[in-house]
C-alpha cells in the first residue's frame, strides 16, 4: 500500500530522488519523518510517497517516561535462521544505554526493528518519537552532495541567513565548521559520522539509535566521537541506544545490555575505567546549539 504525504518540496530533495539506494531512501524518509513530527504547521505540496511500513514509524502512544519499550521480539530473515529470539527490555527517557554483542549476534537487525524499518514477527516495540538512526556505514547516513545541504534540509521555517547561522553553529559543535561548503564524498568516515549526528540532532529526536557508529574510526577518533555524542545529548533528556561490539566503549554508558545469538544475556551496570569521567569533562560545547 502506498500513501501520499504532504511536504514543502525543495529542489535538492527532488534532485537526489533518482540516486536513491535503499539505504539512502531510508535515511531520507527518516529526515522527513523527523521534520514532520517536529513541525507545528504543514504546508501542502506533495513530495514523498511513503509505504505502509514507513508510515508505521510515525508517532504511536507511549508512556511519558518511556524511551524504548521492547516486548518479546522475534525476527527471522528466513524460516530456518531466527535472528532475534524473544528480546525484551525497556529504556527510560534520557538514559544512555549501550548494546554490546559480537558479529552476527543480531544487533543491526534489532536496530532496524526498533527504528521501524523491519517489523517483528512476534512481540512488539514502542519508542518515543521521533526516532533517528545512525547507520554503521557513514555513506548510508548522508543524502545530499554537500555538507551545507545536509544541515539546511533539517532546518525549516527560517530565513536563509538564519539557516546558515544555525547550520554553522551545529557544525562548530562537532569541530567541523571549516567543512561547511565541502562535498560529502570528500569527507573521511569519521567526519561523515560527525556531520550525520550534528545534523540529525538539529531535528531534536527523542530517541537516537547509533548502530556501530565508530566502525570506520581509529581508537582515538572513536573515543572522541563517543565523548562528543555523550556531551551533546547529555542535557536533552534524549534516549540513546549505542550499539557496539567493542568492550571498551561500555564505560561511557549508563547501562549495558549484552546480546548473544539473538538473546539478551545481560542487563546491568557497565564496567567503567577510571579515566572515562575526566575525558568526558574535557569535552564541553562552547555553546548549546540544541537549546531553543
Ligand atoms: N538482509 C539480510 N538478509 C538475510 N540475512 C541477514 C540480513 N541481514 C542480516 N542477516 C543475518 O542476520 C544475522 C544477524 O545479522 P546482524 O547484521 O543483525 O548482526 P550484527 O550483530 O549487527 O553483526 P555485525 O556486528 O557484524 O554488524 C546474521 O547471521 C546475518 O547473516
TrEMBL record:
Residues 68-286 form the ABC transporter domain. GO terms for cellular component: membrane. GO terms for molecular function: ATP binding; ATP hydrolysis activity. GO terms for biological process: transmembrane transport. PROSITE patterns: ABC_TRANSPORTER_1 (PS00211), ABC_TRANSPORTER_2 (PS50893), PROKAR_LIPOPROTEIN (PS51257). InterPro entries: AAA+_ATPase, ABC_transporter-like_ATP-bd, ABC_transporter-like_CS, ABC_transpr_CbiO/EcfA_su, Molybdenum_import_ModC, P-loop_NTPase. It comes from the Eukaryota. SMART domains: AAA. Keywords: ATP-binding, Nucleotide-binding, Transport. This is Probable ATP-dependent transporter ycf16. It comes from Galdieria partita.
Amino acid at each position: 500500500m502506498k500513501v501520499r504525504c504532504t511536504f514543502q518540496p525543495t529542489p535538492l530533495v527532488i534532485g537526489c530522488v533518482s540516486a536513491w539506494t535503499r539505504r539512502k531512501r531510508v535515511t531520507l524518509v527518516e529526515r522527513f519523518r523527523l521534520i514532520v513530527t517536529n513541525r507545528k504547521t504543514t504546508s501542502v505540496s506533495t513530495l514523498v510517497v511513503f509505504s505502509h511500513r514507513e508510515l508505521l514509524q510515525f508517532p504511536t502512544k507511549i508512556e511519558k517516561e518511556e524511551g524504548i519499550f521492547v516486548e518479546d521480539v522475534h525476527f527471522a530473515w528466513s524460516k530456518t535462521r531466527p535472528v532475534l529470539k524473544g528480546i525484551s527490555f525497556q529504556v527510560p527517557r534520557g538514559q544512555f544505554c549501550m548494546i554490546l554483542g559480537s558479529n552476527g549476534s543480531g544487533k543491526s537487525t534489532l536496530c532496524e526493528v526498533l527504528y521501524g524499518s523491519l517489523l517483528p514477527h512476534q512481540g512488539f516495540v514502542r519508542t518515543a518519537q521521533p526516532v533517528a538512526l545512525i547507520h554503521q556505514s557513514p555513506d548510508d547516513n548522508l543524502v545530499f552532495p554537500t555538507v551545507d545541504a545536509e544541515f539546511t534540509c533539517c532546518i525549516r521555517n527560517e530565513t536563509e541567513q538564519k539557516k546558515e547561522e544555525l547550520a554553522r553553529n551545529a557544525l562548530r559543535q562537532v569541530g567541523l565548521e571549516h567543512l561547511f561548503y565541502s562535498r560529502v564524498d570528500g569527507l573521511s568516515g569519521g567526519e561523515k559520522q560527525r556531520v550525520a549526528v550534528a545534523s540529525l540532532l538539529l531535528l531534536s529526536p527523542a530517541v537516537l539509535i547509533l548502530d556501530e557508529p565508530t566502525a570506520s574510526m581509529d581508537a582515538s577518533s572513536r573515543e572522541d566521537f563517543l565523548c562528543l555524542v555523550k556531551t551533546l545529548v547529555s542535557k536533552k533528556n534524549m534516549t540513546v541506544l549505542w550499539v557496539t561490539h567493542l568492550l571498551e566503549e561500555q564505560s561511557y554508558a549508563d547501562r549495558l545490555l549484552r546480546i548473544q545469538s539473538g538473546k539478551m544475556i545481560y542487563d546491568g551496570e557497565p564496567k567503567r575505567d577510571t579515566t572515562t569521567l575526566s575525558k568526558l569533562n574535557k569535552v564541553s560545547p562552547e555553546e548549546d546549539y540544541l537549546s531553543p
